[in-house]
Amino acid sequence: MTGPQRTLLAPGLEISRVVTGLWQVADMERDGRTVDLDAAAAAMADYAASGFDSFDMADHYGSAEDIAGRFVRLRRASGRLFTKWCPVPGDMTPARARAALQRSLDRMAVERIDLLQFHWWTFEHLAYLEAMQELAALQRAGRIAHLGVTNFDTGHLRVLVKHGIGIVSNQVCFSLLDRRAGEAMSKFCLEHGVKLLAYGTLAGGLLSDRWVGKPEPAAGEINDWSKMKYKRFVDAIGGWAVLQGILAALARVARKHAVSVANVATRWVLEQPAVAAVIVGARLTEREHRADNLRLFSFTLDDADRAAIDEALAKTTRIPGDCGDEYRRPPFLTASGDLSHHLETIPKFYKALPVDGRMDRWRVDSGSVWEPIAGYSRAVRNGRRILVSGTTATQGSGAVVCEGDAEGQTVYILDKIAASIAALGGTLDDIVRTRIYLRDAGKWEGVSRAHGRYFGRVRPANTLVEVSNLVGDYEVEIEAEAELA
Q1: Which end of the chain is more exposed for a tag (fewer CB within 10 A), N or C?
Q2: What percent of the chain clears pLDDT 70, i.e. is strictly above it?
Q3: First to last CA, the chain
Q4: Which of 291, 229, 238, 295 is nearest to 267 (CA)?
Q5: With a threshold of 0.85, does the pTM exceed it?
Q6: Beta bridge partners of 54
Q7: What's the whole-number mean pLDDT along residues 2-10?
């Protein structure tokens, strides 16, 4: 084989099944260091000429987009260029989305981005839907070929898809250490035509020959961001001994096929049915692994291989939560560790207001035209108690979110409830009761599972009832009560 296998990610967008990730540019530029942009662009051209012509970057990966721009100007080889918009949550206006897109277009020296992927830090800030709608408008204007997301969990990917946003891909962590993406996420993606772009497949290099049979490194030996991050994953699945069990199994399979441990670890991910491609990081100008990556397509895993790997995986502890949760809730499995301080700086979606000058009672309005007409608040705090009114999947503009989809509406409603309580000084952990009003009792399971993802640990009192009708085109309405400690 002269080049890597290819796949159709979306209509008109054929890509390499090994995408070259440029996140390590940011690591290479730590502590004031600089990267030679022209040399890095020439290295990109070498990748493209070898068939590894698909590149993933982001607006915050240091000079990655600038390097891509130099690559485009070289005209030695064409490439498929993916980038990400990772804004700080806040008001989402057309001007803000246009400015962010234009900056990436200018840096990358292109008129249209092949795949623009969106990352959102906290779904308690509901503007993620407005942001995606602005990007969809820019797509219709011809500035973006395709839209994707990154680190979205299954519920919020559902909200976008069921609300009519054309999502072609979700970029998520997927490896032998972190198999969350192979669960509900893969099922949803296969049912709705969304492809997975898998990163972290080598756990920052920890799933490679270099670490087979090696003692656990001291803290000072883990000195790049990628390994710092994935060492936390190793600790979460059971520790270094568990990792060594996985590596030993991979080494046996690798010897059988005359390939590397990294090849086997990556091949396992490539063979997952919802995965379109894996993203393998490159340290441009420093080292490259194209020849080794090409061996990914020289073999496939057979039943005996998978059984040997499964035996080692049986000793692991599952990474908690769903895809992307490591950025939003404990345990924070990131290079920086606990991100609570970062999340706490994000502005609240709603604003708390005193009730008639009383400092012991506060309220939250969502901006609905009915709140002043009917004389109610989205939520009220009285002392240590917070009451949230019956909440529907209504966007700020008044549009119904996920029309006809009860599970998607439940996700959006619970985000609104979380945002309301946060504005009043509480969290979802403070909720002691929820009441769910469902138009069609036959849709109870999806609604209940969504409720369980939010409250499976807190376990508030709950009532779910079918009602003969709900006002408006809603499948579900939810109210909540919280008590602050």
Answers
A1: C
A2: 100
A3: 63
A4: 295
A5: yes
A6: 80
A7: 94
